[in-house]
Design brief:
Blueprint (H helix, E strand, L loop, with lengths): L1 E4 L16 H11 L5 E4 L5 H5 L4 H9 L4 H7 L5 H24 L1 E4 L20 H11 L6 E5 L6 H6 L6 E8 L12 E5 L5 H17 L5 E5 L17 H17 L4 E4 L8 H18 L1
Parallel strand pairs: 1-2, 1-3, 3-8, 4-5, 4-7, 5-6, 7-8
The structure holds zinc ion (ZN).
The site of zinc ion has 7 residues, from loops.
């Protein structure tokens, strides 16, 4: 399986910032040890590809560093030219991984899952929406199949919900903590709210029901899996109580159901803010290993 990395595009952050910039290189190092995975450098997307999804004014403000204080606070990251470069490669990792999935059955982005980025603004560490930009780029190239966005990050995917709201060819399902960010939501096609402290058993039950419901809205020609590591009990932002073994079972069940139905799967990492962050990287690497054995 091909996996696309963008971790060498670093950007400046203040000390003790919550964005887990180190997890991407840690994850890549672990993934490079996997026998069935080839790690490749993620190519950047073009500004045209970004503008196909985002409002031109948001694109311009990001590109040239024109964000006001409210926008910077909403994004949660300090603007820099390096942040912009990284964002283009991060989105590019998902586009390349989706192409790999369509060719090989599975592909992975060692990043991506920027599901809070909306049409007119970035939010919650998400500058541009990788899945929406990817779907738009594939559509332009003639890909016409039905798409599933299976969002298992612990935070609700408000950006995906907004950007695909008017698109009946894309089904967006989000399984997340009920009391977690974002606090002003945009409804997905299917939203599943989980109470604080949800454990492996309750989570896997909810996942099985979610997979049944999403299957009824198929069949799909491509699925995006947002395999956030932040439902982990040791996550600083998660509020749920899954174990690493529970998360591995989550991925086995989700990837198994999709691949079993013949659906190509593009895996993205999405969030993960564990203490220690090496634990998060290990969860991400196991997701990639499971996807690789399914391709
Ligand atoms: Zn998250």
């Amino acid at each position: 399986m091909r996996a696309y990395a963008h971790d060498r595009f670093l950007f400046p952050l203040p000390a003790h910032h919550r964005f887990p910039i180190t997890k991407y290189a840690l994850t890549r190092h672990a993934v490079e040890e996997l026998p069935d995975v080839t790690v490749l450098e993620a190519p950047p997307v073009t500004w045209d590809q970004v503008r196909a999804v985002h409002h031109p004014e948001w694109v311009r403000r990001m590109r040239y560093g024109l964000l006001d204080r409210r926008e910077t606070a909403g994004l949660g990251l300090p603007w820099s030219p390096a942040l912009v470069t990284r964002a283009l490669h991060a989105v590019g990792s998902t586009l390349a991984a989706a192409r790999a999935a369509l060719e090989d059955g599975a592909g992975a982005a060692l990043g991506g899952g920027t599901h809070h980025a909306r049409h007119r603004t970035g939010r919650g560490y998400c500058t541009f929406n990788d899945v929406a930009v990817t779907v738009a780029a594939l559509r332009r190239e003639g890909f016409g199949g039905r798409v599933l966005v299976l969002d298992l990050d612990v935070h609700q995917g408000d950006g995906n919900a907004e950007l695909f709201a008017a698109d009946p060819t894309v089904f967006v399902a989000s399984l997340h903590g009920a009391r977690n960010y974002p606090f002003q939501r945009v409804p997905s096609d299917l939203d599943v709210d989980l109470p604080d402290g949800t454990d492996d058993g309750a989570y896997l039950e909810a996942l099985a029901a979610t997979l049944e419901q999403t299957a009824r809205a198929g069949p799909y020609a491509l699925a995006f899996l947002l395999a956030g590591a932040d439902p982990w009990s040791a996550d600083a932002l998660g509020r749920l109580a899954l174990t690493p073994e529970g998360l591995a079972e989550r991925d086995r069940v989700a990837i198994g159901a999709l691949r079993g139905a013949g659906v190509p799967v593009c895996v993205t990492l999405a969030g993960g803010y564990g203490v220690p962050i090496a634990g998060t990287a290990a969860i991400h690497a196991r997701t990639i290993a499971l996807a690789a054995t399914s391709s």
